[in-house]
Every structure is written in structure tokens, then in C-alpha cells.
Design goal:
Shape: elongated
Number of helices: 1
CATH topology of the largest domain: OB fold (Dihydrolipoamide Acetyltransferase, E2P)
CATH architecture of the largest domain: Beta Barrel
Length: 137
């Protein structure tokens, strides 16, 4: 491999990291390069990702509500089981779904425990701040 191609690959790799991209392609004068950064299959953000928590005093006693705007996912990946389902007993702090915002998957945790009575969202659907996600008994 020519040194100029190695240098170009290094530059493209740096661009991936700087711009939080997963892949980049480059073509010029018969040279075609594709650089791909491998990420975990679920693209789940670390637990330490700050997420605004809803004010508990405004939260209805039997609902778990969205702390943010984004796209909700009920499982960590399309082929994985859902985090929770109707009939499950959950505890405070347990992950109940993911909400994707600005290409970051944020784990959403239960603000209270109880038995899941209803799932009020569909996986892949947009959600709003304070929108009910799950109903507890």
C-alpha cells in the first residue's frame, strides 16, 4: 500500500472520530476507500449519560413518562427481547427502554417500581417530553 493511501486512511479515520461518524467513503483518480468504525450492535450510550429526569411530583402515580424527546425503542436491538412487557414486575432504576436523541441511545430507567399494566408506545415511534411510556398497576 502506498504511503499516500496510508496517510489518507489516517485522515479519514480522524474525521470519523472528530465527527462521530460510523463510516466514510472517498473516491478520487481511481482510488476508492471506505473506512468503517465498528461500534457495539446496540449503540447504547454509557449509563453515565446525563438524561433530564422528569419531576416526580408531576408524574401520575401509575405512569412512567418520557424524560426527553426522541425515538423510543423497547429492546436493545431489533432481534433482542424487550426490556419489559405487560405482566412484568419492575423495580425503580431498572432499564425500561431506550430513547434515541441526536444519534445517541439513552437508557431510560423506571422512576418507580410496580407491575406493568400496559405498554403505551411502539418501538421506533417518536416520543415527547413527559409522554406516558408505560402504565403500572
Amino acid at each position: 500500500m502506498k504511503q499516500e493511501h496510508k496517510d489518507l486512511i489516517k485522515e479519514l479515520t480522524a474525521l470519523l472520530a472528530e465527527n462521530n461518524l460510523n463510516e466514510i467513503e472517498y473516491s478520487e483518480n481511481g482510488v476508492h476507500l471506505k473506512v468503517v468504525r465498528h461500534t457495539p450492535a446496540t449503540n447504547v450510550a454509557p449509563v453515565s449519560t446525563p438524561v433530564a429526569e422528569p419531576k416526580k411530583e408531576n408524574e401520575p402515580k401509575n405512569l412512567l413518562i418520557s424524560p426527553m424527546v426522541g425515538v423510543a425503542y423497547l429492546s436493545p436491538s431489533p432481534d433482542a427481547p424487550t426490556y419489559i412487557k405487560v405482566g412484568d414486575t419492575i423495580s425503580e432504576g431498572q432499564t425500561i427502554c431506550l430513547i434515541e436523541a441526536m444519534k445517541t441511545f439513552n437508557p431510560i430507567t423506571a422512576t418507580k417500581g410496580g407491575k406493568v399494566k400496559a405498554v403505551l408506545i411502539e418501538s421506533g415511534a417518536p416520543v415527547e417530553f413527559n409522554q406516558p411510556l408505560f402504565e403500572l398497576e
